[in-house]
Amino acid sequence: MQLNCPNCQHRFALDHASEDECARALFGLLGRIACGRDLIAYLSLFRPRTQALRWSRALAFADDIEQLIKEYGDAPVAIALRDTIDALRPKIAADGKPLCNHNYFKRVLDSGLNRLPVAGASAATPTRSARTSKTAQGYVELESLKHGQ
Questions:
Q1: What is the pLDDT of residues 15-54, one digit of tens each?
Q2: How far is CA 49 from CA 28, 71, 94, 99, in A?
Q3: What pLDDT, on a 0 to 100 scale, did the predictor assign at position 116?
């Protein structure tokens, strides 16, 4: 099976991409998580401007995200991935300096988790309409679905 690179239009065989052990492990990880597309976009933020991101490095970053998914769940991590991508993609495109760690992502995830209402909170807890950001509204919706409200 031949694939086309969306960036450079280079054609390559899928079996060539799967020859690397780390690449196979990354493909397997992407199949296990719900936010695989977001993770791929997030991993692109680590790609150096003049070279490809090594499979081993991509796998290490993806493993870190998988651990956060196990700890916090799919939905908050997926939302934080999208917020991180939206915030950093223009900045990285402008200055060409890729990410080197997950610190920014973890701050985004923590800030999103801090906005989640506490289960059984009083009526003083802001409702969906009182929230201004779409991310905060999404967290409230997810939490209400989780608790069956």
A1: 877 788 999 999 999 999 999 999 999 999 999 988 889 9
A2: 26, 32, 11, 11
A3: 62
SS3 9: coil
Report the C-alpha gap between 31 and 37 in whole angstroms: 10
What does the block give as tokens for 120? 């059984």
Q: For 117, which DSSP code? A: P
Alpha helices (H) in 1-149, listed in sequence order? 14-17, 21-32, 36-43, 55-72, 74-95, 103-114, 134-146
Measure CA 29 to chain center.
13
pLDDT score at 47: 93
Distance CA(4)–CA(9), nearest Å, equals 5
Say if CB 91 and CB 49 are below 8 A apart.
Answer: no
Instruction: Tell me the C-alpha distance between 98 and 133, whole Å.
Output: 27
Q: Angle 74-95/36-43 helices, nearest 10 degrees?
A: 30
